Amino acid sequence: MIEKPRPDRVMVDAAGLADMLALSRSSIFNLKKAGRLPAPVNVSIRAPRWDVAEIRAWSAAGCPDVQTWAKQRRAKG
After folding, report:
1. Largest CA distance in the chain
2. 3-state SS of 12-59?
3. Per-residue pLDDT tens for 44-76?
4. Label partner for 68 (CA 20 to 30 A): which of 23, 34, 37, 54?
5. pTM higher than 0.85 for the full model?
């Protein structure tokens, strides 16, 4: 069973991120590999976690590619 992201949760794993974005886990990893998702925090080699606040901000910005997202974040300070 996939655990649903909670509003108080700070980080989510690939399954939680997939649920947030209404995608499959494999789509999450494909997007990550293609440079289309903000980088995860690698808790360990097999345990990437994504910052929920960053994913929400990235989504609100229109889901730009990683390079565009980095430029937008730097511009905001």
Report:
1. 40
2. ECHHHHHHHHCCCHHHHHHHHHCCCCCCCEECCCCCEEEEHHHHHHHH
3. 878 899 999 999 999 999 999 999 999 998 998
4. 23
5. no
